[in-house]
Queue: 2 jobs
Job 1
Amino acid sequence: MSAALPPGPYLVLDAGVCEQAGHDPLDVVDAAAHAGLGVVQLRAKDRDVRALLDLTVAAAGRLTRFVGPPALVVDDRVDVVLAARRRGARVDGVHLGQSDLPAVDARRLLGVGTLIGVSAARDEDVDAALRTGVVDYLGAGPVRATPTKPDAADPIGLDGLAEVARRSTLPVVAIGGLTVEDAEPVRLAGAVGMAVVSAVCAHAAPYAAATELVAAWARARSHAASAS
Amino acid sequence: MSAALPPGPYLVLDAGVCEQAGHDPLDVVDAAAHAGLGVVQLRAKDRDVRALLDLTVAAAGRLTRFVGPPALVVDDRVDVVLAARRRGARVDGVHLGQSDLPAVDARRLLGVGTLIGVSAARDEDVDAALRTGVVDYLGAGPVRATPTKPDAADPIGLDGLAEVARRSTLPVVAIGGLTVEDAEPVRLAGAVGMAVVSAVCAHAAPYAAATELVAAWARARSHAASAS
């Protein structure tokens, strides 16, 4: 492990979902930062890698105006992180799916101090990620089926999430069809973060939605508290 | 420009096309090297980036047994080139489509001495590539429609190829549905290289096909010779 995952709500900012809801993705970046989210992951599955690179550089530019901004993480593409950094952007990490570049290769290219997350749903994914010794957190899901990722695997449910959290010595972020109502069950399942896409990007008021997520997370009972 | 394109036949080794024809892609790498091809570009559009990375490392391993091996180029992915190099593989370059990472960013990440090619069919693609000052060669096409890239743009024909070659101050490699019969018309159109996929990968005898391509290219009249 070489970088610490900020706990709490985690925004997966999907450019296409934002725009379909009438939001400029960069305004959603601002909203997330103002609301105090710990992580913004940039995703642009419906467009090409140039668009993801441009979005990354522009989002990093927006975040320079904040003190203690969210960690900025890029979905999938290690080369986008590297290219954005060469353009002067501050990018904090990358999130890798099971078919993306292996975490060991990503760590070699990105260096220590970069946040590296890996998606893990099955026991063998969890164990493999732990074995690498270079992963900072696991993204566990989908907890529920979600329209923003129609090609995703079968949902693991809150029980599956709890199983990943029990098995993992790394921090676990829940993902997949989650809303503000899920903050407490997700925390009770042992996750230290909760990723949302539509709950912010597709909301009529992203700032209000992000603020409510932060508040709901803060007041929810957690696994650690209930266990002590 | 920072690396020189080896002229002549240029193999685009598509892993899926090789396997459909019953060939291990690594055996086709060997065949290309034995036949004296100047460039082998690795492509695996039907599989994930991990497979492309593994193929790249394995192909580079095969080529260590040759003196003066073909230049090894990876399709699309700058991060695969970087990761393969970190694994100790010798990778010579990358070929970028119009929706891949911009050449300027690729050059910053890959450094001088890396061969960078860009696909260019329209006048504006050619001009944009020339303006960057960091591109080593252009891939012009598709000259003809091709089953190995069904999503490709409309064919530009040999006339379109000649137009790109006239416009470009960089070396031009023709691509798209080309066979051994095209060596002379392609050279007369002003291209210094000819990329093939199926003509080698899907041939029953890849080594024989590659050898015949090298011979046909060598005996074909060229634009330079016919102009002098």
Job 2
Amino acid sequence: MTTKVAFIGMGVMGYPMAGHLQRAGYDVCVYNRTASKAEAWCDEYAGRAASTPAIAAEDADVVMLCVGNDDDVRSVVYGDDGVLAGMRQGAVLIDHTTASAELARELGAACQEQGFEFLDAPVSGGEAGAVNAKLTMMVGGEEKVLSKVQPMLEVMAHHVGLQGPVGSGQLAKMVNQVCIAGVLAGLSEGLAFGKKAGLDPEALVAAISKGSAGSWQMENRSHTMWNGEYDFGFAVDWMRKDLNIAMTEAQKNGASLPVTALIDQLYAEVQALGGNRWDTSSLMQRLVKLH
Amino acid sequence: MTTKVAFIGMGVMGYPMAGHLQRAGYDVCVYNRTASKAEAWCDEYAGRAASTPAIAAEDADVVMLCVGNDDDVRSVVYGDDGVLAGMRQGAVLIDHTTASAELARELGAACQEQGFEFLDAPVSGGEAGAVNAKLTMMVGGEEKVLSKVQPMLEVMAHHVGLQGPVGSGQLAKMVNQVCIAGVLAGLSEGLAFGKKAGLDPEALVAAISKGSAGSWQMENRSHTMWNGEYDFGFAVDWMRKDLNIAMTEAQKNGASLPVTALIDQLYAEVQALGGNRWDTSSLMQRLVKLH
Amino acid sequence: MTTKVAFIGMGVMGYPMAGHLQRAGYDVCVYNRTASKAEAWCDEYAGRAASTPAIAAEDADVVMLCVGNDDDVRSVVYGDDGVLAGMRQGAVLIDHTTASAELARELGAACQEQGFEFLDAPVSGGEAGAVNAKLTMMVGGEEKVLSKVQPMLEVMAHHVGLQGPVGSGQLAKMVNQVCIAGVLAGLSEGLAFGKKAGLDPEALVAAISKGSAGSWQMENRSHTMWNGEYDFGFAVDWMRKDLNIAMTEAQKNGASLPVTALIDQLYAEVQALGGNRWDTSSLMQRLVKLH
Amino acid sequence: MTTKVAFIGMGVMGYPMAGHLQRAGYDVCVYNRTASKAEAWCDEYAGRAASTPAIAAEDADVVMLCVGNDDDVRSVVYGDDGVLAGMRQGAVLIDHTTASAELARELGAACQEQGFEFLDAPVSGGEAGAVNAKLTMMVGGEEKVLSKVQPMLEVMAHHVGLQGPVGSGQLAKMVNQVCIAGVLAGLSEGLAFGKKAGLDPEALVAAISKGSAGSWQMENRSHTMWNGEYDFGFAVDWMRKDLNIAMTEAQKNGASLPVTALIDQLYAEVQALGGNRWDTSSLMQRLVKLH
Ligand SMILES: NC(=O)C1=CN([C@@H]2O[C@H](COP(=O)(O)OP(=O)(O)OC[C@H]3O[C@@H](n4cnc5c(N)ncnc54)[C@H](OP(=O)(O)O)[C@@H]3O)[C@@H](O)[C@H]2O)C=CC1
Ligand SMILES: NC(=O)C1=CN([C@@H]2O[C@H](COP(=O)(O)OP(=O)(O)OC[C@H]3O[C@@H](n4cnc5c(N)ncnc54)[C@H](OP(=O)(O)O)[C@@H]3O)[C@@H](O)[C@H]2O)C=CC1
Ligand SMILES: NC(=O)C1=CN([C@@H]2O[C@H](COP(=O)(O)OP(=O)(O)OC[C@H]3O[C@@H](n4cnc5c(N)ncnc54)[C@H](OP(=O)(O)O)[C@@H]3O)[C@@H](O)[C@H]2O)C=CC1
């Protein structure tokens, strides 16, 4: 029998993710707050849409969420119209939203109480990863639950890895974002320095990108950074949300994040330059705009 | 006729670099302040040593330096025993030391005045790169000078790139070090956070190392960082020297390096923990040692 | 007729504040979650205690709160036992808790709706200020409301200043805490440097405390900081709460707080050293403990 | 017999300092690189000028310097025209320049070798302090040397304090500058936040300046900072010189200065805005100029 999936959140990420599932033969019913996006999705993928999360979740074997932040998740999960009100016993709820580990634990407990399974499975890879089914999924939960849905997740992702108990997917994603912040800070200061020093970007990046200074961001973003092109990619607003999730968690687990905290504030300066929707590599822009 | 090379500085880097040249058929004469290392090199490579830089430089077509810092370079270049006192007209002086761009320009001018050619050619790749002839060389100077020595440099390096006029090699190396500092800061805070969060390092790194958080350092150092192993690699003392060269240059070219400057001070805290000779990835140690 | 006051929160601050009012002739009824503290207060000041905030607030002309954080305030304000359930028409609610401006606006709106007046009036001056009635009160709200209660507030404070509409008291307090963080960071790094440099603290502070480096903290804390005495004063945990309130507000108003954010993380390192309840001047301790 | 004084450096500080001495009855001979300033001084104070530092120092009981940085001091001290070439046995050299402790020790050794006494005595108090004879002098050297010149120094300063052996005056001045940096960072972020929050500066500063957030800078600079007035006072360029002296010393004594290092880079951003000669309180300007 065809596995039934409900997918809540037809944003930049959720839309193509749900599309891959439908194309792979799953029976997908989507929900989106703004109905027009759900309709567009139905047109493109010949799929179904529901008028509330609860209705979308009815009969579903698996319910997936990909919305904005903790509060957004709560608003599609709880209440009469929320997915928990519609889910059937034994169904699995998977949250792909980048959110707090606390939320994950809260959802895990709520699911357990009501007879559902739960996984937190935030993703990395950006819009391109979602469109090309090349996401990385960092999963928190029980292995036996993951094993049931692993093939389905691999329709959307090229790496699906269990990180530990519920919440661990989110924690791994926090590490990911903290690492990116540092990489981009070094790259931004390095390239802005290189500009002021009159260096040639092609020769520079050719020399330094293969060695110990190298990074995915250098390989993929140094060219656009040098040219001040930021109108694409993973938005500064999202990044600040994610870094603040990590810093809030750090207040609980006792980690110190001095460099990350500084970078988060430098992103505030990028926002002040109008960069809310710019790619995170726009961290360089405040250095370039100084003059 | 065999090209004659003088190589000044038989340290961790210079020793194997000079060895590759000798093995490749160049006629190498080495000099080292501490004579025992020069003797060891002669034994290992059946080469020659001289008792002063000036004597080593006599008859040499190419004179290479790889010593500690600006002052160290000056002490083997100038004076009666310095290489400039020994070099013959038309010879090329190449400085592989990581030093200031100002020093490079000063050496360039001194060479021009005395009828020599000059290139600054600092390297990256560490001890392993030197031993395996897989260095990256960032070269500052004139193309026609580089073209004369390119084959010789490629004996030691897998990438030899001209970055611009004299000094540009050093400037590119500064960018390299600034980028590394940021990468390692993010990685250190990320991994230390992951430890406090109870994550599994294998699953974590498997998930995040291939995507936009990925870096050479994550690929090659996250395992040792997690285990607190730092007794190898590129020393914190060297890193601080390099970052201070970059920050001094930034004061001249008007670049701002807020994150780099912070990281430099965090390295001071690593030094206070005894980490002067630890690998730069030990930036993580101060976070782990907090408790 | 004697003005009736309800005072909720018999902590370090609230206990002596309520005491001053009772001594000044106001008719004070206190409430504390942990009843023993309320009883102790009644014994010391021959006052009255109530079993819920709502009961304390009945008949009161003025209801004052001084609890921990936003959530704590909500828990004594709302619900059947909360003060709003007990207050009479025209009564004034004054929140002395250091909390968010958002909470202040929320309380202001709730009061308006139910026919009460509201002022946010966070304080500075610490335990000593509370005990000696030398607090500073930063007030947000309407001038005509403040004028009604000003004499009562001046029983506890030597400065009561209107900062603007509801929420402005909290905003001013945020500025206060941000300023303190910077002062203490400079002082900590300066004194720790001075220690390493072998300077004499008496001569040093005598020289620098009267000029442009001078501050209340230098005047009042440099001696204890030098001696590593932190077992008193305003706790690091409270400071982090306050700085995070400011940073959250900054995300809304677009301010950038790079130095503050860094210091907040350095306080995380002080907490990791066991400093949760140490005075904020313990920021120096992480520098001293490096070796 | 009248004490003879040579004063080298008729800059913003040295000019009025030398004037006070002349007015107090000392026999002052000045030298300035740019002769016109020395002439103006002679006109104003009916004093004498010499054509070289060496000639000014001849016959002098005390030789005072107040020039720019380490190199500037060396250029008026050493060589045939330097003060050491002119000084008589037993004379005292006092350096009022803000310079490194290393330079002080070097000058101390040179003086000892040649039969002179030496004190480092950098000042704080700014142009106003110099003009109004209200400087603070932080002195390094021997008590018996200081006691000889103390009355003379008190002609220019309201506080003259011995900080320890030669170099300690400079070390104390470093602490002073580090403290100022922190104070101004907190004040800048606090006031810029207050602006964004729509607060009234008068009410704000009235409330917070008397308590634990208070500082000389808040008392004396918050008004001009709020109004963006920076065209006076102690220049950003000088501040960066001083902070870099402190950071270089910290590399030797093992102190960590994370917040100071960050602030130094933020001053680089103020310089990029054109603020080289602005008062140090212009640290706020980069926050205000974000939009
Ligand atoms: N974009 C990227 O590159 C990446 C994003 N992520 C994370 O994935 C998540 C989704 O990102 P993305 O798709 O880009 O975001 P978008 O803003 O494109 O989409 C957000 C989706 O969530 C819905 N939503 C938001 N709030 C609510 C709410 N309160 N109630 C109901 N629905 C709501 C939106 O509905 P509506 O259409 O009605 O607004 C929309 O469908 C975020 O957590 C993000 O951090 C992770 C990796 C990469
Ligand atoms: N201490 C200081 O130096 C200064 C403190 N402040 C601010 O003043 C406020 C109070 O500080 P302080 O008096 O030191 O704090 P304490 O921890 O000493 O006291 C807190 C008080 O709040 C009560 N409380 C906390 N949470 C709740 C809750 N959920 N429900 C009911 N009551 C609750 C406590 O009750 P219980 O006894 O039952 O725990 C106690 O009476 C804080 O916002 C602080 O930031 C401001 C300036 C200086
Ligand atoms: N200004 C202030 O508020 C304060 C300054 N200081 C410190 O005091 C010192 C002097 O400051 P300030 O008076 O403001 O500086 P100015 O720039 O006003 O004056 C510098 C003086 O030094 C002379 N000078 C500089 N370099 C040389 C050189 N290589 N050879 C000969 N003379 C030289 C200049 O001569 P010329 O006229 O020919 O240029 C001038 O007389 C600095 O170290 C500064 O950091 C300390 C506290 C406050």
